Amino acid sequence: MTHSDFVSFNDQPCRFKLKAGKEIFGIIRELHGGYYFSTLAERTRKHYAANSDSLGQAIDLEDVIGAELLSSSDLMVS
Q: Is the predicted pLDDT of residue 17 greater than 70, yes or no?
C-alpha cells in the first residue's frame, strides 16, 4: 500500500490484509515518520492513559496489500 492509498485509512478502525496472507483488525497510525499498528482496545487504552509512550507495533506499509474500513464494508483498496 502506498502512502496516498493509506491516507484515508489513517487512525480508522479497519481490516488490513497483509502480504503473508494474514488479516489483522485494528488501527494503523502515521506518527513521527513511521506507521504503527494497534488493536482497537490498545488504541482506546493509550488514548485515555496519561503517560502512554507506546505508539503500537511498527508496521511497513509495503506489507499491507489491502484495507477495508470496518464502518463501511463496500470499500476495499488493494
A: yes
3-class DSSP state of 13 = coil
CA atoms within 13 A on the CB side of 38: 17
β-bridge mates for residue 37, sequence order: 28, 57
Q: What is the pTM of this model?
A: 0.76
Q: Which residues pair with 23 in a beta bridge?
A: 17
Tell me the three cell numbers of residue 37: 499498528
pLDDT of residue 71 exceeding 80, the answer is no
Options 2.60.40, 3.40.50, 2.30.30, 2.40.50; CATH for 3-69 is 2.30.30
Residue 55: the pLDDT is 75
Which helix (H) or strand (E) element contains residue 42? helix 40-48
